[in-house]
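Hi support team,

I've been running sequence recovery on a batch of backbones for a student project. Most finish fine, but this one hangs at about 90% for roughly twenty minutes before it completes. I'm not sure whether the input is malformed or the queue is just slow. I've pasted the structure tokens below so you can try to reproduce it. Let me know if you need the job ID as well.

Thanks,
M.K.
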């Protein structure tokens, strides 16, 4: 376990996912905890605390228990996905007004069986995706920084940074106040089979590449 003092000061929320049992990820910096729905726990030495959340496909997801007070101009997310066995339409992370993948908000989603990752800005159901047309590793750390309508998405594997992508789009802000990820719907086509570990959020700041790299360094296997 690493010290919370080593986490960059701009990070406002951190869920270590180290409970190993139960249906809640506790927040050790902020006040909003995360509910785990249709998930299980997995133990492995490669996870930063030896425990992580297993997402089990359709309707297996995590979501914040309550809303955040957010700065709609600058928001950041980061976290690990391990052992992705299959995924299509599921969201590594999204910001929504409710407990499903958003029609008005922001989302990173898997497509094409997990081999393509898209960042979508959703505004009233419309989306302007940034597509990363590459084969993703089955385990990776992502960092996403939003600043107004601009975004930067960073991806690391277990040993090195793979790439970063920049883009912009029409970003829906109305009512967007909950964090969630995984398979946000019960129907086929919205799922992730993978392990999730170490969630970080800044509700006030678009984190820098160096800050994301520091989080990766702190939590990598």
């Amino acid at each position: 376990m690493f010290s919370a003092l080593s986490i960059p000061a701009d990070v406002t929320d951190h869920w270590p996912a180290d409970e190993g049992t139960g249906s809640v990820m506790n927040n050790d910096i902020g006040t909003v905890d995360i509910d785990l729905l249709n998930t299980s726990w997995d133990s492995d030495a490669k996870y930063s605390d030896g425990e992580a959340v297993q997402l089990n496909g359709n309707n297996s997801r995590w979501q914040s228990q309550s809303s955040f007070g957010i700065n709609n101009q600058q928001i950041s997310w980061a976290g690990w996905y391990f052992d992705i066995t299959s995924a299509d339409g599921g969201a590594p992370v999204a910001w929504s007004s409710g407990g499903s993948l958003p029609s008005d908000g922001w989302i990173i989603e898997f497509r094409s069986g997990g081999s393509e990752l898209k960042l979508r800005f959703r505004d009233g159901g419309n989306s302007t995706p940034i597509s990363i047309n590459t084969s993703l590793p089955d385990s990776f750390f992502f960092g996403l920084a939003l600043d107004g309508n601009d975004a930067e998405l960073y991806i690391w594997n277990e040993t090195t940074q793979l790439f970063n992508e920049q883009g912009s789009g029409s970003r829906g802000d109305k009512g967007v106040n909950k964090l969630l990820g995984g398979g946000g719907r019960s129907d086929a086509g919205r799922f992730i089979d993978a392990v999730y570990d170490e969630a970080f959020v800044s509700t006030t700041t678009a984190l820098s590449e160096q800050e994301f790299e520091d989080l990766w360094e702190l939590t990598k296997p």
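--
Follow-up from support: It reproduced on our side and the slowdown came from queue contention, not your input. The helical segments are 209-219. No action needed from you.
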